[in-house]
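PROTOCOL LOG
Step 1. Enter all chains and additional molecules of the complex.
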Amino acid sequence: MIKIKVRKPDMVENIKLHLDALLTGVKEAVKPGTITIEYPRERRWLPDSFRGYILFTPENCISCFQCSFVCPANAILMKKSENNRYYPSIDYAKCIFCHFCVDSCPGSALRQTKIHDVVYIDLDEMFCPTENMINPPEIVREDEYTVEYLMDLDIILKRVKERDDLIPEVKPVEIIKEYSSCYEPDSCLACGICVSSCPNEAISITSLDGEKRLKIDADRCTGCGICVKECPVQILKLVKG
Amino acid sequence: MEAVYELLKAVSKEHFMENMVSIPLIQPVIDNLLNIPLVGYVVALILWKPMFALLIFPGLLTLMTVLLFIIWFERKLTARIQWRRGPLEILRWAGGIIQALADGLRYFFQEVIVHRDAHKPYFIQLPILIFIPVLLPLLFIPAGSIVGIKTPYALPVVVAIVSLIPVFIVAIGWASNSRFAYVGTIREAFMYFAYEIPFILSVVAMILVYGTADMTAIVEKQTIPGIILNPVAALVFFISTIMATSRLPFEIPEADQEIAFGPFVEYSGIMFGLVMTIAYEKMYILALLMSVLFLGGGNGFPIPLLGDLAPVIWMFLKTMAVMVALAFLRSIYARFRLDQALRLSWTTMLKISAVAVLIGAALNIAQVA
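Step 2. Run joint prediction.
Step 3. Record the structure below.
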């Protein structure tokens, strides 16, 4: 056993240490520092890339299923909507807010917000269908100040009397137009899987001289790549238009 | 017949009016009220000095106010020093000052659980019985000429009654019959022996300094405050007050982080509310005693307009200063271990208190006070 020898301060030093503690206490009692934010009257300033509640714009969605594939928590369910397209819906009971779906979205149909304080009544309500993702949830804003932590040598709280916009503007991304094409038509089995998988009915099989041929309508194709994934002989690929 | 006449005389309005608190500022109002038949009797009763001591100061009303204030103040001050906010949301514009009242209400509507292993009669009785030793000393503490029971043995009586409180706490821990309560009770018993001797020795030193145990006489004799006459006794008294009321750094019997309020761990609801305030009430009594013994009690500039109320105000301010100092310690000290605290009190404190008694004896011979 190793016994650690603790240096015992002598009496004068001891009294000095006690006085030092008392003085520090008095100093903090008179002019205290603070690291507390009085939520909900104040909100912490958050960067625009904050991973919060996810919003959805159906016009930008090409039903590529990319968000659903990438989701590590398996929280995104693609549901068929009335216009025969597949749109994502998020189960917030599973979501880990990694925002892989937002990053992987080719048309920026999913976008991030700074909303992080949504309340649900029960677990069933945490499943957020597509129509609820289009508009931000109702927020009661009680905050008047926005507080920012300035991590210098000491922690300083900078209070500004303004409201932080919780839904940041997202820069429009340049959408690269792609469409599916068959590069080895001779190997095609004409099994029709691509036809049934296409959400936009862009692929059709035509019979020409008794030989079945694949016909892809480039105007209707959104470049979602589902047929590329589904093709059993792997002869489809996305090309830039 | 003679006895009945004496009794009637003792409860008559005239008897109360002989010994009334005089407040020149509102004297006309009081005079008018005294002329109204029933109201006059009640006003005379309340302003009768012993009843005033019981109901207003240092009794019920002040005690309640101080309890509500000091619990809030302690939390707020500690939070401020530790860079937090403290109680805030209840009555927000006043900084959450009625937090203790709200907590009390919550305790009131909570279920009181008496667990299976507890000794049921004692478990329920003792938190209520403990108020006898906790509140009785208030009758003997004078504020100027206002005193409940005037006796030359006031100081020994108060010290004796205050010394009874830990016995009740040990009994509470025994009746609770659980592990944490057992540990807390043992600690309470150890601390009781450790602080009681220096505490009594410092009081004895002050009795020697003034040559009397009558608190009114002690206050009158303090042209120089006792803290200047015998600072060593004041230090010992202060430290043993911290130990007696189990404040940090000697919060050993309660130690909420490790044994969850020690002897009081099994209590819930209003019973917990009662036992939780015991330490604060004891703190109030010992602060009153400290202001009488060392800070000159009700002495101060006389305020002619307030009359008998002026000593009350001075004494209240001094008591609050002592209580604030006690509450302040919570935010800067960590807790001592039991053996460290025992070593401190059985060696250093005992030595210092012996020195205090010697100083007291020397001052007694020199007839300073």
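Step 4. Note key features.
Chain B has 18 helices and no strands.
Chain B has a mean pLDDT of 86.
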